[in-house]
Amino acid sequence: AQSVTQLGSHVSVSEGALVLLRCNYSSSVPPYLFWYVQYPNQGLQLLLKYTTGATLVKGINGFEAEFKKSETSFHLTKPSAHMSDAAEYFCAVYKDSSYKLIFGSGTRLLVRP
Amino acid sequence: AAGVIQSPRHLIKEKRETATLKCYPIPRHDTVYWYQQGPGQDPQFLISFYEKMQSDKGSIPDRFSAQQFSDYHSELNMSSLELGDSALYFCASSLGAGENQETQYFGPGTRLLVL
After folding, report:
1. B90, B89, B78, B86: which is closest to B115 by C-alpha?
2. Whole-angstrom Cα distance, residue A72 to residue A107?
3. What share of chain B is helix, strand, coil (3-state, %, to 5)?
4. CA atoms of A64 and A78, how far apart (whole Å)
5. Going along chain B, which residue ranges are E strands?
6. Hey, are the CB atoms on B90 and A44 less than 8 Å from each other?
7. A87 falls in which pLDDT band (50, 70, 90)?
8. From CA B78, how far away is CA B63, in angstroms rounded?
9. First and final CA of chain B: distance in angstroms?
């Protein structure tokens, strides 16, 4: 069965520092992987997705993620954190062939001035 | 660009009351999903519809029902509300189903508080 694990419920970085949010997946079929961001009291916004093809995926707001099959990982990175990046980030995978999303437990990103 | 619309955005109900949440998908999207996000929790899949037919069912209580109408909007009906139903309810829409499905786009959510 498909699942995702996000390491670290909270990540704190200084403004301008590298952002690294970790996601590992478990899937019996080639996975479709997603990162969503949730700002306080708002809905989920798609940051980026991996389906097939290029393993380095670029998303909005300067974020990118790399699909590494050998490590079953899909970590999210951004070279330089901005205060506006403070939010909750969810990694997700499609469950089997039903195409419903299975979310990780989320990582809250805090950006220090 | 048009996004997924959910109404109401906030709803306060008493225990044992009923509630109806509405979702209007992005134009041309024919698939709708409902998710429930409890306080401090990740979103959990409830139910989905494709072309007005239920396509999948998750951890949705029997007290809840949903349908998709001819204009593709969807309604989630919740009866005999319990305190534990207090959550953020998201609707998402996509174009197509199965292998041809495209990305799910989420609405802003309806925050339900049961007192």
Report:
1. B86
2. 18
3. 5, 50, 45
4. 6
5. 5-7, 10-13, 19-24, 31-37, 44-50, 53-57, 64-68, 74-78, 87-94, 105-106, 110-114
6. yes
7. very high
8. 6
9. 36
- What sign for the dihedral angle of Cα A101, A7, B39, A84? negative
pLDDT exceeds 90 at position A40: no
- What is the Cβ-side half-sphere exposure of residue A21, based on CA atoms within 13 angstroms? 35
Chain centroid to CA B80: 17
Q: Which residue of B has its CA nearest to A91?
A: B42
Q: Which of B36, B67, B99 is nearest to A96 (CA)?
A: B99
Nearest to A44 among B45, B48, B106 (CB): B106
Say how far apart CA B84 and CA B67 lie, in whole Å. Answer: 23
Q: How far apart are CA A95 and CA B76, in angstroms?
A: 22
| pLDDT per position as a tens digit, B12-44 | 999 999 999 999 999 989 999 999 999 888 899
Q: Do B42 and A42 touch (CB under 8 A)?
A: no
Each residue's pLDDT tens digit, B73-105: 999 999 999 999 999 999 999 987 666 666 889
